[in-house]
What does this fold into?
Amino acid sequence: MLTDDIQQELLWAPMLDARHVTVHTNGPDVSLTGFVSSYAHLARVREAVRRRLGARPFVCELAGC
It folds into this structure.
């Protein structure tokens, strides 16, 4: 499943604490909610999701930075 794939990518990503990031999918649409501690973590989350999705757009609603 897409949700599981993205969650695994976030957990695997080096130097990324994604414990407070929740992945939501509705068909091909992906959104992220939760909390990150810095802009660097936000960038790493986005990179990790792009590795899994490729060029497809996604919604990133992460707070804390």
Q: What stands out?
A: The first strand starts at residue 21 and ends at 26.
